[in-house]
Structures are given as C-alpha cells and as structure tokens.
Design goal:
The chain is built from twelve helices and 13 strands. With 335 residues, it is of the alpha/beta class. Helix 1 links the parallel strand 2 and strand 3. 46% of the residues are buried. The protein binds (4S)-2,6-dioxohexahydropyrimidine-4-carboxylic acid (DOR) and zinc ion.
Length: 335
C-alpha cells in the first residue's frame, strides 16, 4: 500500500527538548503539517512564528517536511499586521479562552463586531481560520453547543475559510454541508474511540484529550465522512505529546500522542471498514492540498501488512496503542 505526500493538518510539535524529541516522528512519514501555536507564550508575532519555524526545521534535520505555520488568533490583529505576516503563515488558530492546553489568551464571548476587523482582513488576504470549537458548557455538550457559533461566523464572514478542528460530533458533521465555507479536520483517535474507551472502565489517561471522545453515534458520523473522503474533511491528528508524568498524574494533561502510528493505523482502519485506498489518499493528503492550496514536498510512504509492536514510549512520551500490536508497518519512505 502506498500513500503520496501525507499531510497532518493539525499537529502539536511543542518546543525545546520535547520538540527535539518528537519532531521526527511526524517529519519521517508526513510531507507537512499545520503546526499549532499554543506554546507558552503563544505564537502571536511575526518574529515568534519565524523563529519557531527555524527551531522546527532544526529539529526535523534531514527529513523532508514542511511545517505550515499558524499564529494564535487575537481580535487585535489588523490588516497591516496580517499583510506583513501573511507569507510566513498558512492559517490562524482561534482558541476560546481557557478551553484547553495553553489557551488562556484566547477569545471570550464571540462578539461578531469585535471579531469583524480581524476576520474581514483574514478573508480578504485569504488566510484560513482554524477553530477549536468548544463552549465552556458541560463537557459532553461543548462542541455541539459551539455549532451555533460556527454558523454565526460562517454567515457573517462568507469569504473566510473556517476549519472546524478535530470534530467529534454528528452535529459538526451536519454543519459541514450547510455552509460552503466550513471545513473540518478529524483525528485518528476520534475515529477509533468513544468516551467508554477513556472512562468506561479503568481511567485511560493516554486517551484523555480535548474535545473529549463522544458517543458511538458521533464516532459513526465521523467515520462515515472520513471513509468516504468527504471533500471538506482532512486528516488532522491533533497528536499532542505530554511527558508521561503529566499524563499519569492527578490532573492529567489533555492530548493523545499518535504521530508515530497515525498512517499505519489509518491504513488498518480503512482496510477493516472496506474503504478504498483512493479515499485514504484523499483523506490524508489530496483534500488538504485542495482546501489549503498547498503543494507539499514529494514523499511516498510504502506501508506493508506486517504487525508492529508499538513501543511503550518515545523519549518519555506514551503513544496511543503503547505495547500493543498494530497490523501495518512502514516499509519504506521514498523522497
Ligand atoms: O487534547 C488536546 N491537547 N486538545 C487540545 O486542544 C490541545 C492539545 C494540547 O496542546 O495538548
Ligand atoms: Zn490541537
């Protein structure tokens, strides 16, 4: 099985030692990725985004990989600032204030008039807006409640490309087809697990993430659009590494680390569900090329059906399926 120029349209690469330790687990098998800006402090100036990209390139070493950079959205971004930074970024990521890891400086209230100058300028400059779509309501309802905010934004800014990040609900899937300018990323873990896998038996901290995994019917709705490679959905792993001590703790950090196994497990899932290789290719690459108008570097990943025992950790970060067997292995990466 062969995949061409896979893209991960939602990735946390972190910084410092963690970046050095985990960058290659994405850069080896993916041609590029949208890099999340939720560092401490968040990436919000041209200097910060340029410097962060350099640190990523250094950590990536000789792998062929394009980091598609993002800024952390602030309502104060004006057109001249956005024009000056446009060539350094592929998108801007909006976090509701305090909703997840390092999002304290995000948006509260979602007042269209407050957001209008920045979002109008982004639409004019053709800069997509990536959104972490959760309210601060009851944890299982946060994403469904946010759909009305997506609708408000999609209607008020019809020329703005809005990407609903890591969708987890059937309500978000339904919104996709209602608004021309709404798109979505879907993670690997939300295609595989429900809340039962996280908390139905003994608590599984390595599957705890935001948005939290939902109900079986939500997972089915996600699976349907991923397996059919709905033209408005893209793979975005939301691979979010935390050190083992931050996950296996009282006060567990949110995030599932899937980068090293993502393509192999997607291959297994698409096969199990009788979905075609063409659809997998569209889901992990072609749809993103089209939606983001990016041209990733050439890379071909050859996968083979040979079982692989997932390591218990990668430099102290526990991956999804740690110590378990997965059905596919990476045979070769051709650059
Ligand atoms: O589970 C998550 N982890 N969800 C997010 O939105 C952020 C991420 C992280 O940065 O750890
Ligand atoms: Zn994320």
């Amino acid at each position: 099985m062969q995949l061409t120029a896979p893209l991960d349209m939602h990735l946390h690469l972190r910084d410092g030692e963690m970046l050095e330790n985990i960058a290659k687990s994405s850069a080896h098998t993916f041609s590029g990725a949208i890099i999340m800006p939720n560092l401490v402090p968040p990436v919000s100036t041209k200097e910060e985004v340029v410097a962060y990209k350099e640190r990523i390139m250094k950590a990536v070493g000789d792998e062929t990989f394009t980091p598609y950079m993002t800024l952390f959205f602030k309502p104060s971004y004006d057109k001249s600032f956005l024009e000056s930074v446009k060539d350094e970024i592929t998108a801007i990521k909006l976090y509701p204030a305090g909703i997840t890891t390092n999002s304290e400086g995000g948006v509260s209230g979602f007042d269209v008039e407050e957001l209008r100058p920045a979002l109008t300028a982004m639409a004019e400059l053709n800069i997509p807006l990536c959104v972490h779509g959760e309210t601060n309501g009851f944890v299982m309802d946060r994403e469904a409640e946010f759909v009305s905010i997506y609708e408000k934004l999609a209607t008020a800014f019809p020329k703005l490309k809005i990407i609903m990040e890591h969708i987890t609900t059937k309500e978000s899937v339904q919104a996709l087809d209602k608004y021309e300018n709404l798109y979505a990323t879907i993670t690997l873990h939300h295609l595989l697990i429900t809340l039962d896998d996280v908390a139905g038996g003994m608590l599984q901290p390595h599957l705890f993430c935001k948005p939290i995994a939902k109900r079986p019917e939500d997972r089915s709705a996600l699976l349907k659009v991923a397996l059919e490679a709905h033209p408005k959905v893209m793979f975005g792993s939301d691979s979010a590494p935390h050190p083992r001590h931050a996950k296996e703790a009282c006060g567990c950090a949110a995030g599932v680390f899937t980068a090293p196994i993502a393509l192999q497990v997607l291959a297994e899932l698409f096969e199990k569900e009788n979905a075609s290789l063409e659809n997998l290719q569209a889901f992990v690459s072609d749809n993103a090329h089209r939606i983001y108008a990016v041209t990733p570097p050439k890379k071909t990943i050859i996968l083979e059906k040979r079982s692989f025992k997932v390591p218990s950790d990668y430099n102290g970060v526990v991956p999804m399926y740690a110590d378990e067997e997965i059905a596919y292995s990476i045979k070769e990466v051709q650059k």
